[in-house]
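Q: What would this chain look like folded?
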Amino acid sequence: MTDDAWMIKLAGGFTIACPPNLDTLSTYVFKEQEDWFEDEAAFVRRLATPGMRMIDIGANLGFYALSAAAAAGGDADILAIEPTPEVAALLRRSIAANRFSRIEVAELAVGDRNGTIALHRNGSNELNSIGTGDVPGDVVLRRLDDVVAAHGIETCDVLKIDVEGAESRVVAGAARFLASASPLIMFEIRDGERTTLDAADLLRDAGYALYELAVDPPMLVPFSGRLDAMRLNLFACKPDRAETLEARGLLAPGFALVAPADHPGIAALILRAAMLAPRSEAIARAIAEISEDDPFSMALGWYAAAEMRGCPPNRRAGALRLAHAAAQTAVAAQPDIPRLCAAARIARAAGARAKAAQAARAVHDALRAGVDVAADMPLLAMLPSYESWTAPGGVRDWLDAMALEATWRWSAFSDMFTPESALSEGRAARLRELGRELPDLERRWRLAARRAHLSADG
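A: My prediction, written as structure tokens:
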């Protein structure tokens, strides 16, 4: 660390230079999670390949550009575009520290015209934005068509756009490039509390199909048109790029119709949890008594089908989407603990984080209210790590820890958004009490406490 920047080691094996204070969102999250909080972070690491070309518009401190370069072993040509001078300077420090000589920084803004524009600083560098309309300002503004021409870029594998609500203007100024090239485009759809699909509409009109990210494993699936409340980004690409990604297992071009697994297959799925092994016979009987037409049985059956080893992308995508829909139907009809556990696990796998958090919180509340946990309950582990972990105090403690941990991990992108640091500390203490002590969650509450202490000291 230095007085003017903190150098933080992140997942993927690279170091990033950050503003030296915990009131900057990026700095806080990198300290807290040693990664970025978006599900797309893991996907970009899988996506990157040696020799790739990437354009990162709204690069900020360069997390995605640096992640791609690291995952490609430094063998990637990346143009990182960032208009804020002090942020671009930190990005250049990161490039030098990691010896990523093929990342170039362009200090400008991208939009639908050439000229200049005002830069609005909004407290944290992730939230800086450019002005609207034709009012000139202090930052150079260029259309992407002209940027790529100036840099001699003709092809691009990945184009990331995160410009705080101005994504549609970037797309509007890139008509020639998007027609001649065929990148996978990742673009933000949230600007604060506002969701905008203007860029999505322009991309669809330009011949790009829309996709959203399923997270277990990271894979693109056709956009459903229904946005989870915590989804931040969408993707778009042309058919040729989709074929390439499908061949790598990273994209499902459609949803295959898949038969759900039978009752023994469902039992095998549930009983992957070592905690439930002593109850295996009772659980198997309870599963056998559920009607195959029951949405709960169908949700578990389709999820078991999606989890089958070697399942191709379109079959996994089809099974996962059917499982998610059936699980939501099951919970709406009967929101008991087994159905809520299944809904949470399946929703998270499908990328519906808000739905997953809602279900996990409902399990947590039910346990606090004293709801009985019967010996034959078919409990799908909400978090995969709980399949191997056993609670010293028994199944109820296992379920209690799992509901608390899932709620903590999923309800907010970071504890920076949680107003009371004592909440994080209390959650960590309760998990320790239940026999579950995790280094990353210990780090989270300690950082929240540290920030609260610094704020209190003024």
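The longest helix spans residues 313-333.
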